[in-house]
Design brief:
Largest sheet of chain A: 7 strands, mixed
Strand order of the largest sheet of chain A: 3-2-4-5-7-6-12
Shape of chain A: globular
Helix content of chain B: 40-55%
CATH superfamily of the largest domain in chain B: Thiamin diphosphate (ThDP)-binding fold, Pyr/PP domains
Number of helices of chain A: 12
CATH class of the largest domain in chain A: Alpha Beta
Number of domains of chain B: 2
Number of helices of chain B: 15
Shape of chain B: globular
Structural class of chain A: alpha/beta
CATH topology of the largest domain in chain A: Rossmann fold
Helix content of chain A: 25-40%
Radius of gyration of chain A: 20 Å
Distance between the termini of chain B: 65 Å
Order of helices and strands of chain B: HHHHEHHHHEHEEEHEHEHHHH
Number of domains of chain A: 2
Strand content of chain A: 15-25%
Strand content of chain B: 5-15%
Oligomer: heterodimer
Distance between the termini of chain A: 64 Å
Number of strands of chain B: 7
Structural class of chain B: alpha/beta
Strand order of the largest sheet of chain B: 1-2-3-7-6
Amino acid sequence: MSTTTVQAPVTTSAVPEPTGVQRLTFAKAITLGLRRALADDPNVLLMGEDIGKLGGVFRVTDGLQAEFGPKRVVDTPLAESGIIGTAIGLALRGYRSVCEIQFDGFIFPAFDQITTQLAKMHYRSRGQLTVPVVIRVPYGGGIGAVEHHSESPEALFAHTAGLRVVTPSSPAQAYAMIQEAVRSPDPVLFFEPKGRYWEKGDVDLDAPAANGLDGARVVRPGTDVTVVAYGPTVQTALKAAETAAAEGTSIEVVDLRTLSPLDIETVATSVRKTGRCVVVHEAPVLYGTGAEVAARVTEECFFQLESPVLRVGGFHTPYPVAKIEHDYLPSLDRVLDAVDRSLAF
Amino acid sequence: MSLNDLSLNDVSLSSTDPAATPPAATPPAAGPLSTEGLVQLLTPEGRRVAHPVYDPLVAHLDADALRAMYRDMVLVRRFDTEATALQRQGELALFAQALGQEAAQIGSGRALAAQDHVFPSYREHGVAHTRGVDLTDVLRLFRGIDHGGWDPVAHGFHLYTLVIGSHTLHATGYAMGVQRDGDVGTGDPKRDTAVVAYFGDGATSQGDVSEALVFAAVNEAPVVFFCQNNQWAISESTTLQAKVPLADRAPGFGIPSVRVDGNDVLASYAVTQEALQRARSGGGPTFIEAFTYRMGAHTTSDDPSRYRSSEQEDYWRRRDPIDRLRTYLESRGDLPTSFLDQLEAEADDLGQRVRTVVRGMGRPSPASMFEHVYATPHSVVEAERAWFEGYESSFLDGHEGGHR
């Protein structure tokens, strides 16, 4: 853009300030969280492909360019490494970029910038530099998409020191957590369960966002088996708990919310009570989050465990074609099967 | 140019396997190693030649200013020599010499204003010097006690970047921030700001560099891409990176470019000054290819005798950038013995200080590895640090690292 011809946009537009408790889709909750972040801090920028006039391929940034202008809601060239690399430079100049990666499978061109540059800048400068970049990644499957549009690469980033990796599981969490991610001085990978974008929930738009990017939550109390989930699988776990309850089994569901840092204490507290643990995620189980949770639960709860920690997740295959993806994803039945195996051990 | 010209002149086309062709001792007439079209104000023999475009940009450089550049180059070379010796003595894990590239670095670095911001690669010791970085701080990285070593904000000189080409995007993004701050095109020389990315011939093959050129072009970002074509990416000749001069790529992105004799400090200063002025005034990015020669090894771990001829090294040694300025200044009577004596003493002092400071650099505490991983507390790092400190203190002698 020209430095002289683009006028500063009027940010106090005619759009009424969203307020009160509203029933919103997951996607709309993120939209309003981003809107609030843009309104609260003039240094916040949104960057990505098709996020301006189109509002993003999932419409998560719908209306934001019209409201905040093309200098703050920036349609970028189609270059993921370029998006993250320039966001790092903008951060060094005092800006806070929220970058949208259009689909999970397209984050890999930016993998180098994220892992070798973004993650280490604060460390290698001995704290002199901070790079508050947020990377929004619609992730996960179940939407009948073509190749590269349904993946769950979160563990690759949780494995990298210097990055925070978070994933909301409800519209209310999404609204709060995206604002916190923007405020964080650390780089944040913000994984959005795209299969849940159109599910609705109550969101208190006036609630302060200050509930931390740290810490798992018990989202359903129970006594027999702990089911650990995050992002898209939290709803699956809750359904499993409901079904199991009808059969007399009490499942406690823990939503991790943050993969880095991993709040193992909340999980361990639950497992010390139930003695059994099943971890559910869409990502392949080999070297995945479930493996990390299982190892740590074993270290923390060895004498309380009644059965081995079980994992339900993707197989060691590339993400399969859409017509059979539901056989790959951790379904309600596969979660219940794991719960049964845990109880039968 | 015709294909016929290429096949006659470009050594890489004379064989189906370019790597199998030994590099020529002298520059070919075409291709990425040609010296065609280089801006030159001082010939290799130290003779000043007129240039209608660039003469005005160096007209204000008086004898004092030229002596200051000469001093910079001599001091940086002494630093280079001392650091190499320290590596051979086991005091540094590694060192990457800037040897032979002093004119490109000092010429461009001295064109910068205080508010400008530089994103270097890892061989820009000369530019570091012009940005007021204590050269001994550069050695903290090579000593293995720091991943950085200086305050990048205070000096307007970012930390070295070892992943080739990555920082060209950071420079472009930073320049996009400069635009948003309104620090371009105001006409205030203390405010208008340019950003410079330094990188090498090998980096031009990296996707990030192409992406940086795209982002810079479409945003008209105030960034200067300063490519030092030192002809060697470790063992790979520039002929393995390109078929045409590197500067020829930029116009395809909509970015003006210039090839300059990188062993000519005056010309390097002039073309950088032009590019910086364009950036600061809102004219957008420029690509500079400074054609030079890596007179030393890639790093102290390298052995250039395996891949290039001593004839080629001799050829370029005779085009030493420091000798060139020295001959020019001497021919004008601008290099009095008193100045040279003082400079020699100053270089000796620098050498002494480099040796003393490096040998006196302490060892970071082992637990310092846990510092600044995150800007805000991270429970996993905190827990691992607590465990590690407990482990360390469990040894009988108690003190850090004492069990080793």
